[in-house]
Each structure stands twice: as C-alpha cells, then as structure tokens.
Design goal:
The protein has about 375 residues and is α/β, with parallel strands linked by helices. About 30% of the residues lie in helices and about 25% in strands. It is built from 13 helices and 18 strands. The strands form four sheets. Strands 3, 5, 6, 9, 10, 17 and 18 form a seven-stranded mixed sheet that branches. Homotetramer. Its cofactor is Zn(2+).
C-alpha cells in the first residue's frame, strides 16, 4: 500500500510502498478515506527539535482521519466491517490510576497515533477497536476526518459554561474556528475571535461570530467598545500559543473570568500573575479529548445542526501531499484534507464511492 513516511532525519516526507498492516487482537483494519493535516504533522515534516527528540524512524505519520472498517482482529465485538469511523489517536494503557478511574485522557502512558506508532497517512491503518469512533448517524467523511481536532475544540470550549457569556478566542486557526462555531451554537452572547490573518478571520465571519478582530490593526479593547462590553470577557479560549495573545487575554478578562488554554507555546514566557491573582482568574490546561465524553458531545452537536464544512477549505489527492502541506503551513487557510479513497488520481470524483461514503450520502439525502 501507499503511505507517507518519515524515514530520514531530515525535512520532508516520502510517499512509498509499505506492507499492508494486519489487525491484532482487539484491533480493526481501516481503509482510510480522508486525512487532515495537523500542526503536529507540520512539525514532523519540518523535523524540528520536538520531532527530532520524539520520533523513532521510520514512521508512517498522520492521526486525523476517517475510514471504513474492512477487517477485525480476534475479540472485536462493537465495531463491524462497513462501519464509518474516526480515530481517537491517543492510545492509553488502561492500567494506570487515571485510566482505572475512567480518566483516560489523563493517562501518563499515552501512545500517539502517527507519533509513537504508525499512523493514518496511508491507504490502511490498524487501531484498537476501542479507539474507533463509529458514526451511528450519517456524517460526511470529510467532516468525520476532522473529529480529532474538532474534539480539541469541543473539549476546550465546553470546559466552562458558555450560555449567555462573553467569549474571547485568541487564534483563528482551524481549531479556534471550530471552537468559535461551538461557542456560538451553544448560546454564548458575544463571541470575539482574534488573529492576524484576514483570510482566517473571514472564515470566522461565516461561522457567525460577533466580531472577528485583526489584532495587527485593532486592539481587543477596541472590539469590546464596538460591542458595548464594559466588564471584560467571562470565558477565554486561548488557541494560539502566542505569548502576546495570552497576555492580552488575561488583561481582557472580567473578575472571576475563566480561561481554557489549548495553544501550546514554543517556549516559556512571562504573564501578569498579579492580575491573575487579584482578578481571581481560573486557567485550565487542555490536551486532547475526554475519552469518550467529548466524542459523544461532538456527534450530538452535529446532529443538532452545527455545520463544520466552512472550516474545511482545501482538499488534495494524497499524491499531492507536498502542495497540501505547503497550503496548511501558510497560516491563511482552514482545514486541509488529503483524499485517500480513489487512489493517487486528481480525477477521483469520477470513481465509484466506497460503501461507507455511499451509505452516508444516501442517508443524508433521506434525512
């Protein structure tokens, strides 16, 4: 099968032929339909310090995907051939204190798909059956492919109550955009999102935010005045990892405000701890998704009409991966997908749909 592999300690990825995997006990074999390019994948392609110190080569990369189950190993009961699935890319030990207490997202022994074991940028991937989220209600394979980052957005956005609250989101990358969509959908009063990319802020406008603010031109205080806000934001969702964005967010919170921080800084930086203390601000770190409450929340949000399609801006056949990665790295787009369902051919639209794709299309047309 074809797969995108990091096989040399240098920048770049290679599309090569590798053996098709075989599902072991408790695992499923999945024919990959779509994959999403994540910031982690960009780090791996660049082979920066983090990647150099984390990866063991050779490695098939990628962890955001949707696909059709085509085989099961011994002991699999709740996932069947033909199911359309997304993958929870954090594979936990099941034995540590947090796993035993049902807090699997806090497992200290987590293995990352496409980081610590072969991933989903391939025609087929194996995964523990318990990590395969079966879509019981029809979902477009494009949207199903971004359930992993959508889960990050939902986990962050729903960390604190949002109904009637004023919400500030710093960073209009794909996850920030999805968090904005969630905050608007569940009933926040004002949703303000900031970035320095007009292209991404335009996408935010399509998701119904109250204000998309380019902080290269306007301050958050300017935005608050335009919305007639007087006491600061109730909830902050920090999605950028940018030191200035975090400091501006802290300065813009109301007393007793709450911040959920998903953005991962490249290095340590200073913040105004005096304001955090005297304003009694709560800061919560977010990593990944709660397994599997967040996944349930995601499915229900889509069932109730949340539309993520504006977040997906670019689609490429998998053999055009270099162009896809360059597009994702530009910082001006939404989510970038690779299509693995029709072979390495740009004319893929003329191919017959897979069983899972056909079922999803049929059910959507009947809904």
């Amino acid at each position: 099968m074809k797969a995108l592999v990091k096989d040399k300690p240098e920048a770049g990825l290679r599309l090569v032929d590798v053996p098709e995997p075989t599902p072991g006990p408790g695992e499923v074999l999945i024919k990959v339909l779509r994959t999403g390019i994540c910031g982690t994948d960009l780090h791996i392609r660049k082979f920066d310090d983090w990647a150099r110190n984390t990866l063991k080569l050779p490695l098939i990369v990628g962890h955001e995907f949707s696909g059709e189950v085509v085989g099961t190993g011994p002991g699999v009961e709740n996932v069947a051939v033909g199911d359309l699935v997304s993958g929870e890319g954090h594979i936990v030990c099941g034995r540590c204190r947090n796993c035993m207490a049902g807090r699997r997202h806090l497992c200290r022994n987590t293995v990352g798909l496409g980081v610590h074991r072969d991933g989903a940028f391939a025609e087929y991937v194996t995964l523990p059956a318990e990590n395969a989220w079966v879509h019981r209600v029809p979902v477009d394979p494009d949207v199903a492919a971004i359930f992993d980052p959508f889960g990050n957005a939902v986990h962050t956005a729903l960390s604190f109550p949002l109904v009637g609250e004023d919400v500030l989101i710093t960073g209009a990358g794909p996850i920030g955009l999805m968090a904005a969509a969630v905050a608007t959908h569940v009933g926040a009063r004002n949703v303000v999102i900031t970035d320095v990319s007009d292209e991404r802020l335009d996408l935010a406008g399509k998701l119904g935010v109250s204000l998309a603010l380019n902080v290269a031109r306007d301050s958050i205080a300017d935005g608050m005045r335009r919305l007639d806000m007087r006491e600061g934001f109730d909830v902050g969702l920090e999605m950028s990892g940018n030191p200035r964005a975090m400091r501006d967010m802290i300065a813009s919170m109301t007393h007793g405000g709450k911040i959920a921080m998903l953005g991962l800084p490249a290095e340590e930086f200073a913040v105004d701890w005096a304001t955090i203390v005297t304003s009694m601000i709560t800061i919560k770190g977010i990593y990944g998704r709660e397994m599997f409450e967040t996944w349930y929340n995601m499915s229900v949000l889509l069932e109730k009409g949340l539309d993520l399609t504006p977040v997906i801006t670019d689609r490429f056949p998998y053999d055009e991966f270099d162009a896809a990665f360059d597009t994702a790295a530009s910082g001006r787009t939404g989510k970038v997908l690779l299509d693995w369902s029709g072979g390495a051919r740009p004319e893929r639209a003329r191919n017959e749909p897979t069983e899972a794709e056909a079922a999803a299309t049929m059910n959507r047309s009947c809904a």
